[in-house]
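Lecture notes, unit on protein representations.

Consider one protein chain, 70 amino acids long.
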Amino acid sequence: MAVQLKAPKGKTRVIGVTFSNNREYLVGDYDTRGKAFEIAEGHNSLRAGPTDDMYYVYDVQGKCISGKMN
């Protein structure tokens, strides 16, 4: 089952991607963009290599508003 990228109304969603099996998972929904960026950037700063999980922030339309998908 695919992870819903759209955040619920009034929230901002953080999604993690596991590159070893190309799977997405929900990290959480946050009340502010600032908090979502803080969570995603905090996780991304701990990455030790290119195959470690990457974290992205999505808005209520399901648009990625942080990170690089390529």
